[in-house]
């Protein structure tokens, strides 16, 4: 069997249909706001999430970091969960790019409860940073692709508004949250001032993310995008890929979620393998390999020998992601390979 690449849902490649859409895209200079395909995408996604405007940017990291900068001044602080992407996987962006410190709170597999945030706003006093922004992530990557319980988001959001804090959502995989929960993009987004969404996760698009917010916020962000070197020219070819993905690859995320359940079953049936968060809700399967099976590195190598590529995320931690380019047959094969990691049952002696 060919290589089965479950390392990330960023592994998806543009299909022939998507490539044709890209080749045929009408384009213009987007720094001048003259790319019709980008304008169309920005309007469509803004509408989908009930925001006034959107801004296409090269990556989810840039999108989040532009939002952090636009919401803050140097010397401010943001509140976030310890394992969130903005803090853990964006190369120290808040500190480097915005002069902002992150106050991290340990969540329950990525999920924060309002009680953890209460009391974390610094008093107005010359000694302290200024608490300015709350960032949440949905679905939560390191938390096991969990969908944020909407009532927790509502409570945190209301508290943030009451305390004058801005609210940003890292919605790199909000698509998966929408499909898994049946809750609309508009509803999720209504609890935030701004959000960031990625087209390059699981939907076949080679590049592209979008930040969304008020017209005023997006105008401010456009200037920061320029500052960060993310102003693009005839990037309508990217927008065309995203439009194609929304039309063709968004609703099929449900298949990825079903495929992930096949891996869940295999892991649950294999002694020595254990899911991190026991209820996999979307396409990310985080699991632990016990030392008795040799730990993460040994399992990683054994899987690779049989064509199954996963990510090693810690000494005992592996992650497998299902996505557009992974067929059901490949998932079934992967499930078999996972089960084969456990030692063979001892044969009854003759
Ligand atoms: C992938 C990801 C991003 C953005 O990643 P880029 O590679 O910069 O596009 C942001 N947040 C989360 C939760 C992610 O998983």
TrEMBL record:
Cofactor(s) the protein needs? pyridoxal 5'-phosphate
A Pfam family: Beta_elim_lyase
Molecular function, one GO term = transaminase activity
NAD listed as a keyword: no
In the record, which positions carry N6-(pyridoxal phosphate)lysine? Answer: 201
Which UniProt keywords are given for this protein, alphabetically ordered? Aminotransferase, Lyase, Pyridoxal phosphate, Transferase
Q: Which GO terms describe its cellular component?
A: cytosol
**GO process annotations (BP):** glycine biosynthetic process; L-threonine catabolic process
Domain named Aromatic amino acid beta-eliminating lyase/threonine aldolase: which ranges?
5-287
NCBIfam families tied to this protein: GntG_guanitoxin (NF041359)
Q: Can you tell me which family this protein belongs to? A: Belongs to the threonine aldolase family.
Name the chain's protein. Aminotransferase class I/II-fold pyridoxal phosphate-dependent enzyme
Whose protein is this, by species? Telmatocola sphagniphila
Output the lineage of the source organism.
Bacteria, Pseudomonadati, Planctomycetota, Planctomycetia, Gemmatales
């Amino acid at each position: 069997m060919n290589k089965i690449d479950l390392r990330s849902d960023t592994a998806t490649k543009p299909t022939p249909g998507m490539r044709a859409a890209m080749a045929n895209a009408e384009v213009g200079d987007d720094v001048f706001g003259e790319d019709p395909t980008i304008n169309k995408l920005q309007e469509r996604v803004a509408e989908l999430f009930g925001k006034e405007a959107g801004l296409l940017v090269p990556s989810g990291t840039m999108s989040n970091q532009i939002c952090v900068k636009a919401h803050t001044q140097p010397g401010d602080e943001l509140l976030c969960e310890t394992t969130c992407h903005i803090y853990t996987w964006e190369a120290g962006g808040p500190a480097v790019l915005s002069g902002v410190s992150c106050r991290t709170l340990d969540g329950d597999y990525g999920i924060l409860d309002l009680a953890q945030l209460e009391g974390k706003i610094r008093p107005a006093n010359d000694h302290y940073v200024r608490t300015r922004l709350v960032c949440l992530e949905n679905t939560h990557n390191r938390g096991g692709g969990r969908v944020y319980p909407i009532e927790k988001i509502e409570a945190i959001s209301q508290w943030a508004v009451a305390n004058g804090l801005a609210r940003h959502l890292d919605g790199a995989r909000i698509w998966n949250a929408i499909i898994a929960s049946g809750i609309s993009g508009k509803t999720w987004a209504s609890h935030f001032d701004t959000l960031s969404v990625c087209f390059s996760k699981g939907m076949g698009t080679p590049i592209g993310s979008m930040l969304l917010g008020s017209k005023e916020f997006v105008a401010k962000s456009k200037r920061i995008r320029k500052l960060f070197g993310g102003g693009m020219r005839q990037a309508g070819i990217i927008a065309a890929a995203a439009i194609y993905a929304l039309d063709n690859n968004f609703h099929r995320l449900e298949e990825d979620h079903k495929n992930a359940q096949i891996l869940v079953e295999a892991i649950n049936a294999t002694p020595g393998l254990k899911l991190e968060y026991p209820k996999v809700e979307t396409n990310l399967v985080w699991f632990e390999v016990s030392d008795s099976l040799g730990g993460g590195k040994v399992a990683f190598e054994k899987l690779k020998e049989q064509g199954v590529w996963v990510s090693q995320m810690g000494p005992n931690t592996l992650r497998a992601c299902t996505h557009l380019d992974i067929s059901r047959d490949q998932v079934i094969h992967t499930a078999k390979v996972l089960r084969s990691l456990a030692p063979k049952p001892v044969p009854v002696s003759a």
